Amino acid sequence: MEENGFTRRRIHTTVLTSNKTYLHVSIATYKFARVTDMPLDPRLEAFLADPRNHVRPPPAHVPMEKVRRAANAAMPGPETVELAEVRALAGPGDIELRLYRPTEAPGLPIILFMHGGGWVWGDLDTHDTICRALARRSGAAVVAVDYRLAPETRFPGQLEDGLAALRWLRAEAGPLDLDGTRIALCGDSAGGNIACTMAMVAGNYAMGIRHLAMIYPVLDAACASPSQREFAEGYLLSGDGMKWFWDCYLGDSAHSGNPLASPLAASPAELSALPPVSISTAEFDILRDEGEEFAAHLRQVGIAVSLRRHDGMVHGFLSLPAVEDVALAAIADIAGDIAASFED
After folding, report:
1. Predicted confidence band of residue 17 (pLDDT cuts 50, 70, 90)
2. Out of 138, 189, 238, 262, which one is annotated catalytic?
């Protein structure tokens, strides 16, 4: 039986846990279930016990700028890393960029990074330490994009900003002493969604993207997976919060089936031009199943996929100081995948 061009069948995948052990498990496409009995990391229990540390729809009377300030202030990074150069770039139009150069070496490859925050909050500062760590561990220059936010700018504005930054970077790589022929796309959460759709578009125009890395990505506007139900409350990102993010981003539900908004709806043909992909999921995350299901779709169309599930973790763990060691290990794994792609 087929759905959206993908066959319902039982496949095998490799899942990487946060303690570096490998599990070879059988996962049924469209029917994901818990495959380990790992408990929630105990270091997160106190954090999650505080109701202020859960993402839910804000009261309607609270101004969006106040919501953003509070959310951004609650997003510390795992580490501060000194680099050879960190500076602002005047990107295309009004889009601000930030360059992270790990060394003075000429012709560094590039990671174009799209930050998370539900398309609604997050900025260059909230993900600064993640970008620094990614640059240091990959050896590549990281360029972060300060795209427009929802609901003031809805789909496809964020995708358009990302593509504008990509085109600008390819054109300006030489003057920046970077290698515009070696570019990877990376993003976390909603930023992973944007990076994914950028790669889908870039593949159609032969823009030479070497790798796509997504960290607990948002990929399915339907919000109907088993993990969406199982972890809807009590694990930082709530089910109602995720639906509110989608409402802010799409505005009109008519876009919910558009694969450039909801990549899990993409057909095999629409995925076939993607580069090799890395996907990192968190065990106790409502977005876990859609990330792993997307990996299954990619494998069915012959795309090389590195899928890692980080057991005991919740959504957003890269920004949680309590589990800094897991966050840094996850960044190192992603950086390694990207660095390897630049050597091909």
Report:
1. very low
2. 189
**Structural domain tally of the chain?**
1
CA distance 51 to 48: 7
pLDDT in tens, 32-59: 334 445 799 999 999 999 999 999 999 9
Q: Please report the pLDDT score of residue 254 as a whole number.
A: 83
CATH assignment of the domain containing 67? 3.40.50.1820
Helices (H), the chain: 45-49, 64-73, 128-138, 157-172, 190-204, 226-230, 239-250, 268-271, 288-300, 324-343
Q: Is 123 a catalytic residue?
A: no
Catalytic-role residue among 315, 319, 333, 337: 315
Looking at the chain, the whole-number percentage of residues with pLDDT higher than 90 is 83
End-to-end CA distance of the chain: 37
Predicted local confidence at residue 2, as pLDDT: 58
Verify whether residue 189 is a known catalytic residue.
yes
Structure tokens at 197: 């759709």
Task: List the domain range (segments joined by +) for residue 242.
Answer: 2-343
Confidence of residue 77 (pLDDT cuts 50, 70, 90): low
The question of whether 285 is a catalytic residue gets the answer yes
- Of 285, 289, 311, 337, the catalytic one is 285
